[in-house]
């Protein structure tokens, strides 16, 4: 079974913030594939689905940690334990300040890069060897990053982020099929 974890903060006041883009991608994927993310398991809301491609089926679990961003690791570690999922079958969906708004990147490992949610997961699972689907949220050099991520998208960025969410959902499909290289190259800009 694959574990797809969208990072974000629970609560209505955080729904539209940039830091919740992981939740938005996972919610959109669930909606598209008729998977309700409503069952409470460990410290997360979860939903099970099955991805079918040609003659192959891949079971997956969608998860949204309810521990707040900076403690996401405890939720992820608990889900790995409950469902006996190896770290190699984890896909973490996160926001990224260093990518343009809506841009997609896939990474197979690496440091947290200042992202406290990713740092929490690395610390809790004891490794950085898990897939990451990053969705760019841009950066405002005049605003502290910890404040910036907790603000909603500007009107000018809303269309870009909708495209980023759509592309993120498509990328998750590739990752579930094991097409990591294709996913890594699909939305990367060249030139």
Provide tags for this entry.
191 residues, globular, Rossmann fold, alpha/beta, single chain, 7 strands, seven-stranded mixed β-sheet
Compute the separation of the termini in Å. Answer: 37 Å
Principal-axes shape call: globular
The major pleated sheet works out as: 7 strands, mixed
Number of helices: 6
Q: Show unreliable segments.
A: none
- The gyration radius over C-alpha positions equals 15 Å
Which CATH architecture is right?
3-Layer(aba) Sandwich
**What is the mean predicted local confidence, pLDDT?**
93
Count of individual domains: 1
- By secondary-structure content and strand pairing, the structural class works out as alpha/beta
- Helix and strand run: EHEEEHEEHEHHH
* Name of the top-level CATH class: Alpha Beta
Percentage of residues assigned to helices: 25-40%
Describe this structure in words.
It is a single chain. Helix 2 packs across helix 3 (about 115-125) and helix 5 (about 155-175) runs antiparallel to helix 6 (about 180-185). The chain has helices spanning about 20-30, 70-85, 115-125, 145-150, 155-175, 180-185, and strands at about 1-5, 40, 45-55, 55-65, 90-95, 105, 130-135. The chain is α/β, with parallel strands linked by helices and about 190 residues long. A 7-stranded mixed beta sheet has the order 2-3-4-1-5-7-6, sandwiched between helices. It starts with a strand and ends in a 5-residue tail after the last helix. Helices cover about 35% and strands about 25% of the residues. The chain is built from 6 helices and 7 strands, in the order E-H-E-E-E-H-E-E-H-E-H-H-H. It has a single domain, classed as 3-Layer(aba) Sandwich (Rossmann fold).
